[in-house]
Amino acid sequence: MKFIVNSTLLLKEIQKLSSLVSSTNTLPILDNFLFEISSNKLSIIASDLETTMISSIQIESQDDGKIAIPSRMLLDTLKSFSNNLLTFIVDMNKFTIEMSSETGNYKLLDKMGMIFQKLLRYQHQIKLI
């Protein structure tokens, strides 16, 4: 999955949502922003289970998809980019998220994606009693 977004616009939206992300979450997935891409629109979702906030911005993308991105790491990384276009390349096989622009490249590891894939592999072995 690949998409292009203005780094300043994305940072502005992420900062609005970051107030919902606590450093003491009991569920690790709540430490992430959920990115949902559909028809050149990026919806960014944050939740603390009591409150959920969604922000949407226009992007350039040929793919639709969803990915959970670590909120603190994303926020800190976005602050280092100047106002320009930022390209995200998500490799679902290697569980990596690469962000690149004219001023730098960053690669993040999608730990939640790895956990979910492992759960899916063992889903047929899990039985609720």
- So what's the CATH class? Alpha Beta
Low-pLDDT sequence parts: none
CATH architecture heading: Roll
Q: Tell me about the biggest sheet?
A: 5 strands, antiparallel
Number of helices: 3
End-to-end Cα distance, whole Å, is 38 Å
Count of folded domains: 1
Shape: globular
Q: What's the helical proportion of residues? A: 10-25%
Based on secondary structure, the structural category is alpha+beta
Mean pLDDT, all residues: 83
Radius of gyration: 15 Å
Can you tell me the CATH topology?
DNA Polymerase III, Chain A, domain 2
Walk across the major sheet and give the strand order: 5-1-7-8-9
What is the N-to-C order of secondary-structure elements (H for helix, E for strand)? EHEEEEEHEEEH
> Which range does the strand content fall in?
35-45%
Question: Could you describe the 3D structure shown?
Answer:
With 129 residues, the chain is of the alpha+beta class. It has one domain: DNA Polymerase III, subunit A, domain 2 (DNA Polymerase III, Chain A, domain 2), CATH 3.10.150. The protein is 23% helix and 41% strand. The chain has three helices and nine strands. The protein has a five-stranded antiparallel sheet. Strand 7 and strand 8 form a beta hairpin. The mean pLDDT is 83.
